[in-house]
Amino acid sequence: MNHTDLEAWLAAQQPAVADALRHLAQACVKISRACSRGAIAGEGGQSTHGAVGEVNVQGENQQKLDVYSDECMAEALAQCSSVAGWASEELEHPTVSPNHATTGRYLAVFDPLDGSSNIDANISVGTIFSVLPHLFPGAEPTEAAFMQPGRRQVAAGYALYGPATVLVLSTGNGIEFFTLDPVSSNWLHTRSGVQIRTTTSEFAINASNQRFWEKPIQRYVSECVAGDTGPRARNFNMRWVASMVAEVHRIMTRGGVFLYPRDTKEPRKPGRLRLMYEASPMAYLMEQAGAKAVTGTMDLLDVVPDTLHQRVPVIIGSSDEVERIIGYYVDPNENVSHQLFRHRSLFVQSHP
Ligand SMILES: O=P(O)(O)OC[C@H]1O[C@](O)(COP(=O)(O)O)[C@@H](O)[C@@H]1O
Ligand SMILES: [Mg+2]
Ligand SMILES: [Mg+2]
Q1: I need a surface site. Which of 51, 132, 203, 280 has the fewest CB within 10 A?
Q2: Judgement on whether residues 172 and 206 belong to the same structural domain of the protein
Q3: Which residues place a Cβ less than 5 A from the ion ligand 2?
Q4: Boundaries of each Fructose-1-6-bisphosphatase class I N-terminal domain copy (predicted)?
Q5: Whose CA is closest to 167, among 177, 175, 156?
């Protein structure tokens, strides 16, 4: 079968956005190569695998591949004339591009390596990225310039480093899949207009946190687990990879729902996942694929960030299940605080 490639698709996109995506995709090729070489990756006897021995801005143990992936992204974006600055999971503050004063019209935000606790076990990991407009062209992008809700994204995507490396992109006109040819390092266009099934009998949640969940999530999961003996009157299956990219890609290909809800495990944190470079880009891709993405009490794309590394509850996937969960949050018997975030709430406006 003959496939066109990423360049052919980019040629039909807005040129400055295409330029940002081209550079992000180039970085993903390098990261993919390092992932696939496993323990033998690295040069001059310096392996890119294993722990750095330091804790990053998230309070998490940094892996060498986290650092290497971050460097690949930064190196690519520094060459990109349309990006004025970027922010990464691995760095506390944004980086200003040398191009900010001239041609930089966009900001990039990324998780250079998602699921990095899986690296040692050779389980799929990925890269997640988001492209936002630079609202003050010519000005140095400060942290404030990044504080835009996900609804403003002009593009988002992820690369999944699995048995095959896959790139999933959207510029607001549906979802495209590209598969990396490891011989030519070319991204081949393998699917277009991907839509997520509205119904599913598969859910993904870290069940070890069950005792910390909010009541609507307790109810939803216990009903799924009860299967054909419970109110759902059908059996459900469960998956948990612990790499959000892999979970999202499974949902893209066969439906499902992924939940990382607000919990009381660490009351200071309203969720595990980071809004700007995990939740927002995935929410954008979900909506582009006809699925839904909420916190439980509002659409994820409407959450206005307060800080770069802000965390947020995430419930995404097949629309029938996400709508059911929203219904459980609305149910007054579930006693949920609806004042969790600024902006539009699911309780005061109807959503298409
Ligand atoms: O299984 P856990 O520990 O609850 O966490 C899994 C979640 O944490 C993450 O791995 C966080 O990503 P990072 O590796 O980028 O920190 C998500 O991909 C995933 O959904
Ligand atoms: Mg991550
Ligand atoms: Mg990461």
Answers
A1: 51
A2: no
A3: 111, 114
A4: 20-191
A5: 177
